[in-house]
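Ticket #4471: structure output looks truncated?

Reporter: J.K.
Steps to reproduce: submitted the chain below (219 residues) through the standard prediction queue, then opened the result file.
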Amino acid sequence: MKNQYFKKLFLVFFLLLSFVCKVEADTVDPMLNNEDLVKGQQYFVNNNFSNAILEFNKVIKVYPNNSDLYVIRGICYSKQKNYSKSFSDYNKAIQLNSKNNLAYYNRGLLKVSLANYKDAIEDFYCTTKINPNNYKAYYNRSSFKVVIKDYKGALEDCNMAIKLKPNDSAPYYNRGYIYYLMGNNKSALLDYNKAKILAKTTDKQLYRNCVSSINSLTK
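Returned output as attached by the reporter:
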C-alpha cells in the first residue's frame, strides 16, 4: 500500500510539471520580422490556439523552410489535442533541421501524453545530445524512466538535472522517490528533506508532498 501511495503521489506531481509547454523567447528566428508572427504569438500567450494556428499558417507560407515555426504550430495543435497534426509538424521541423532540440523535446512530451514512454525517452535523448544543458529533458527523462522501471537510468538523469539546477526542489524530490523504490530509505529521506527546504517558499504543493513523503517513511 505504501509503495502504491508513493507511486500515485509521484506520478501526479511530475505529470503536472512535465506538460508545461511555453514558447521560449528564442524559439523563433529574431530575423523574422512578420506581423502575422507577432499576432500568432500573442494569441498563443492568451491560449487562443485556433487563431494562433491561423496566423502561423500565414507565416509558414512565407517562410516554409523555417523549422521553428513548425514547432510552435505543433505545440498549438498539441494544446488542442490534435495529436496527428502536432506529430506532423514536429516531424517536419526535424526534417528541416535535425538539430532542432525543441522539436525533439516537444515531440517527446507529446509521446508521453499518449503513454508512449520508451519513444518519448528516445526523443529526450536526442534533445540532450543536441543541447546537453537542457534541464527539462533530463528531468522528464528521469521521470519516465521510473515508469518503465529503469531506476538506475532515472537516478543518473536526476543527478544531471540537479547538477544543472542545484537549487530546484523538484529533482531532489524525484530522486528521493527513486531511492525509495531502490530500497534506500536513508538517501530518500535526505533528498525529501532537501526538497522540502528548497520548496518551502517557492512551491507550496511540492512542500506538502515532501512533508507527506517524509511522514510516510518515518512512521
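Triage note (M.O.): checked the attachment and the full C-alpha cell line is present. The mean pLDDT is 86.
Status: closed, working as intended.
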